[in-house]
Task: inverse folding
């Protein structure tokens, strides 16, 4: 006859453990122990853990990035394990710093990061390097001066944002005439890619003989862009085009123009090529966007991290492609 599990009681006898709650607790403990053993087994097999730390997962672009990374890991499951995480919005810099701290505490082998702030994330990434963790910078380049101040050198994998924004700006300029007024909806002013996209738009404006009547940040957010654009078109009734540093803000601009019955006489361009903007291009609400191939950006970074783990070297920066997306290219 099998006896139930028993443990010593206070009086020296035994207590019979029949409670389903206690049984559940014991099951959870067993699972945790099994998980810990599995993690140790992964490392024993030489499979590194790579952490992907992104910006706002509410932005479709970063969800696309995450999906691309997970698909790559699935195809290379014997080569590495992946931990993917992000923050609630583009401005939650403190939370992103906390995520990197957590990855350091978990002793991952590499961190592939798209920083929400080009300066503020440098110190915590330096701490990761000091802990022996490989760090690869993707999407939004770290500020070179901030890196130099910390004596840090990190490979950057990402697009030439200035070149990409100029492509979108040139597409807009081709539909307008010299002297027409346009507005720039900027990304976060503390982000290198936001700064570069603004410069790219300005390059196109200068080349096309256009005039910038307003240039304001909407911090990458759709709702903020809606408010900013509503104010701009009220104060500048003759504006003919709006250049947005990402697609979320382009969608916000479209919403503001629709509310003001201005969709037919103001052209909008964006940056990122998210699916919602592709549909807006087909519908004639957005003129163009720029594809920086978000599904591949993290993959390039992961491949660099694996190379650095295996060879111990620091590869050169890698420029990734940008492509103009218009109605013609979607057909």
Result:
């Amino acid at each position: 006859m099998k006896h139930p599990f028993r443990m010593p009681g206070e009086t020296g006898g035994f207590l019979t453990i029949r409670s389903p709650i206690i049984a559940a607790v014991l099951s959870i403990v067993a699972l945790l122990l099994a998980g810990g053993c599995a993690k140790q087994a992964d490392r024993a097999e030489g499979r590194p853990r790579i952490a992907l730390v992104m910006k706002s997962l509410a932005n479709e672009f970063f969800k696309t990035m995450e999906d691309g990374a997970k698909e790559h890991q699935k195809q290379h499951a014997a080569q590495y394990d992946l931990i993917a995480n992000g923050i609630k919005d583009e401005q939650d810099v403190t939370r992103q710093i906390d995520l990197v701290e957590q990855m350091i505490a978990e002793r991952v082998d590499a961190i592939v990061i798209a920083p929400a702030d080009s300066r503020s994330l440098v110190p915590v990434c330096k701490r990761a390097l000091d802990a022996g963790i490989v760090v690869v910078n993707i999407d939004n380049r770290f500020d070179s001066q901030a890196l130099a101040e910390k004596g840090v050198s990190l490979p950057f994998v990402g697009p030439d944002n200035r070149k990409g924004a100029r492509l979108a700006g040139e597409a807009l300029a081709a539909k307008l005439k010299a002297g027409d007024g346009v507005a720039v909806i900027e990304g976060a002013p503390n982000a290198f890619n936001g700064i570069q996209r603004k410069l790219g738009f300005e390059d196109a404006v200068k080349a096309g003989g256009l005039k910038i009547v307003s240039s304001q940040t909407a911090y990458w957010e759709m709702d903020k862009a809606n408010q900013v654009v509503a104010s701009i078109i009220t104060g500048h009734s003759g504006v003919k085009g709006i250049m947005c540093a990402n697609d979320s803000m382009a969608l916000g601009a479209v919403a503001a123009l629709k509310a003001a019955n201005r969709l037919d006489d103001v052209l909008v361009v964006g940056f990122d090529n998210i699916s919602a903007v592709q549909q807006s291009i087909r519908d004639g609400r957005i003129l163009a966007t720029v594809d920086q191939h978000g599904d591949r950006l993290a993959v390039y970074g992961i491949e660099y991290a694996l190379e650095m783990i295996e060879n111990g070297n620091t590869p050169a920066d890698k420029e990734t492609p940008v492509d103009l997306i218009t109605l013609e290219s979607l057909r």
